[in-house]
Write the structure tokens for this entry.
Amino acid sequence: MKAQTILVTGAAGFIGSHLAEALLAEGFKVVAVDNFCDFYARSWKELNVQSVSRAGGNRFSLEEMDICDGAKIDALVGKIKPSAVYHIAGMAGVRPSIERPAYYVRVNIEGTVQVLQAAVRHKVGKFLFASSSSVYGNQKETPFSEEGHAIAEPISPYAATKRAGELLCYTYWNLHKLPCFCFRFFTVYGPRLRPDLAIHKFTRLITCGKPIPFFGDGNTSRDYTFVGDICSGLLSALEKCDRYRIYNLGNNSPVSLDEMVKALEKAIGKPAKLDRQPMQPGDVEITCADIRRAAEELGYEPKMTLPEGLKRFVAWFRESGHLYKLPGE
């Protein structure tokens, strides 16, 4: 039986590369799209791709292109005729979006429209979209539920673009009956984590004996979710994607910044030096996922504890971190 082809946009990045590997392990053929943007070093993404390629052999291929290039995206989807699209590509990060709002709007909104349009034109069966817990903004009540919380007040351009992506998915379901599942990711971490994200940045700095930027009083909390649990949720959703639906993919167990740093110190075996700084614009106080819908409808069940997940990240960092160098190192 011929393997189904799945298109994964952003497949050279952190979550995208893990998802591509997970799909390959399930026997799918994966066609990856990435434009290797300069958000961080191209060499990092090339290493991610090498890992995926080793896992997939001739069932994996990569096309370097921009999701905003509608003609190229359309031609690719028409050529490979995927049974589903996982749209993981996009500009990430709250703080950078404040500095480059127009660019985030272009990539995360226009790019999403181009991929949706190609999916409709070539009769793709399913569209699975990577959103973010950032869409919830600053909520007073936790956990955040897909229906129980108003999300009309995003506090960063990044959050606004991700909510816009969810709305566009609904529009394409309404107009074209393209089944769309949207997934709100909660602070994903694990091997290959982007260098700008706290766990990776802190690990590098603590290891080198340098101070870590510590924003606020340490009481802000995040629902840290291991990338393997995220991929399990994404895989389980593939067969069930038959309408428009939004799901939280989190861990339902928020941890304060202070607690995370202590756990990371233990995993590394070295104390952190804190460079205390004020809270940053656009940062929320807490994220906490209500995962009951994902559990009931997708069988989603996150299993990785933060201490064990941090151990796995630190082990990856010690084995491969020297390959993933920052500029000037």
Summary: Residues 101-121 form the longest helix (21 residues). The chain has a mean pLDDT of 93. The chain has one domain: 5-190+224-252+288-303. The domain at 5-190+224-252+288-303 is CATH 3.40.50.720 (Rossmann fold).
